[in-house]
User: Which sequence fits this backbone?
């Protein structure tokens, strides 16, 4: 009898297992694939960032090195090597998780986990053999899978998801991306930087629609420079694979149908919770109408000793959100009283420029009727950004009109994925814009743009603009 059994070894599951083991609980983890780490390490965060880094190097070599005074000849992409380096990076990371399981004395069971009853899980291995294990507490961390539209046949050859986009055999000539969200913009950038024409079809009126509107607008400007073509407010009505050609039809706001021809279509309209084969009903675990495991504020399911975390439950589908929930549940089981501030989970898009955001968007503040003031600072005015030729983008700070407390920070620019951490710390400690404005930021750094935006929010006091 284990104290804790975790089903799924993504960032939610493996973190929950480590924290449970740290707290002295006898812990097992079940993973249906041969490698640990889930979507994030195998086909998500890590491989996409590996390819984003490689393609960015190529893009810079092709487009900005000359201005830096570096001349290259015969520059070309070796896609096979690029994908193989990405595979190495994935391997290092998944092996790292295997090591962490061993170090923390967590039993790893490879196979498909399904509930037999509320304390028993059957683990079915690839060869069909199975074993049963029992746990006092069970954590469902089975994650998510790419979503599609009912009329789209994902043939995984020309009509692909993010998983196939991470192991292409050729650079598309014309990649049509359905969905202007994070995954589509990141993977579109990978191939756009290496010469593919990229067309984005998005149903909403802006890119990355869940983020502050200014971010979507700025990102669109930058990606346009990269050659992206946008069809916003377009509803895809059909996708056809004609062998070497794919045809996407979409309807614009006026009801007219447009046709886009390309050689690959990336369907990146979001992800859906994954509970197939889990047999959750056998344990009395309820799903909601969106297919997510229903949980209360302690992340308990309808069976109180069974918890669920990460992409399979409500909330942002992000690795670090899943990790926080993993820790939260392990500590709850151990009798502690943990807390997660969901409003302060940052969101990042690893395009170039990067987009990073935390707290309320301007649209949310308006909707809530909260009086706010806004301060902006463009990277164009940053000495550090001029030095690296990364002048696209800006930092926008939203602060309470009366108290000056920072309510939201939205950044698009160089290295904002890392910069956003300062905003999270500031907001967790309920800093005012003036608090940050009065702190010394090393010069020259991109972080000065955050200080300047805080100065701008504090009585329009930005110094360098
Ligand atoms: C291309 C891409 C890029 C991304 N980039 C980022 C990023 O940069 N930053 C970020 O925060 N997020 C990113 N994400 C999202 C991130 O990957 C997910 O939010 C995160 O992986 C969710 O973690 P999880 O633990 O809930 O589930 P998952 O990582 O999906 O792991 C679930 C695991 O459970 C296993 N499993 C499922 N059912 C069973 C069963 N019955 N028995 C045994 N095992 C089972 C699955 O095989 C899987 O390994 C990206 C996603 C994609 C697709």
Assistant:
């Amino acid at each position: 009898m284990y104290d804790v059994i975790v089903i799924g070894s993504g960032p939610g599951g493996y973190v929950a297992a480590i924290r449970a083991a740290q707290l002295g609980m006898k812990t097992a983890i079940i993973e249906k694939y041969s490698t640990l780490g889930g979507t994030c390490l195998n086909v998500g965060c890590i491989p996409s960032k590996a390819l984003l880094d490689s393609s960015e190097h190529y893009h810079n070599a092709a487009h900005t090195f000359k201005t830096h005074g570096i001349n290259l000849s015969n520059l070309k992409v070796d896609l096979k090597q690029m994908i193989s380096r990405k595979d190495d990076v994935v391997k290092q990371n998944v092996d790292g998780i295997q090591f962490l399981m061993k170090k923390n004395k967590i039993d790893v069971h490879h196979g498909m986990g399904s509930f037999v009853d509320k304390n028993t899980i059957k683990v079915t291995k690839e060869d069909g053999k199975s074993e049963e294990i029992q746990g006092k507490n069970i954590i469902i961390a089975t994650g998510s899978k790419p979503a599609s539209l009912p009329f789209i046949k994902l043939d995984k050859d020309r009509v692909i998801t993010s998983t196939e986009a991470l192991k292409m055999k050729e650079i598309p000539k014309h990649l049509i991306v359905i969905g202007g969200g994070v995954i589509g913009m990141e993977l579109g950038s990978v191939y756009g930087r290496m010469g593919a024409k990229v067309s984005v079809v998005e149903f909403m009126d802006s890119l990355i629609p869940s983020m502050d509107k200014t971010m979507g607008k700025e990102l669109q400007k930058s990606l346009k420079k990269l050659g992206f073509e946008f069809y916003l407010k377009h509803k895809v009505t059909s996708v056809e694979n004609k062998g070497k050609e794919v045809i996407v039809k979409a309807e614009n706001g006026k009801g007219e149908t447009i046709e886009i021809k390309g050689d690959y279509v990336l369907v990146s309209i979001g992800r859906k919770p994954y509970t197939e084969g889990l047999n959750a009903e056998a344990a009395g675990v309820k799903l909601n109408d969106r297919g997510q495991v229903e949980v209360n504020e302690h992340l308990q399911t309808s069976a109180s000793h069974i918890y669920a975390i990460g992409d399979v439950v409500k909330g942002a589908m992000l690795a670090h959100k899943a990790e926080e929930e993993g820790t939260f549940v392990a500590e709850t089981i151990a009798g502690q009283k943990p807390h997660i501030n969901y409003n302060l989970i940052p969101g990042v898009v690893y395009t170039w420029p990067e987009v990073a955001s935390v707290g309320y968007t301007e649209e949310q503040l308006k909707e809530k009727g909260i009086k706010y003031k806004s301060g902006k600072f463009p990277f164009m005015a940053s000495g550090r950004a001029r030095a690296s030729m990364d002048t696209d983008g800006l930092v926008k700070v939203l602060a309470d009109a009366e108290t000056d407390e920072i309510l939201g920070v939205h950044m698009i620019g160089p290295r904002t994925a890392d910069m956003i951490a300062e905003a999270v710390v500031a907001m967790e400690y309920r800093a005012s814009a003036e608090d940050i404005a009065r702190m010394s930021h090393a010069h020259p750094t991109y972080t000065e743009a955050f200080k300047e935006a805080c100065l701008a929010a504090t009585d329009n006091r930005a110094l360098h603009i």
In short: The two ends are 64 Å apart (CA to CA). The chain has a mean pLDDT of 98.
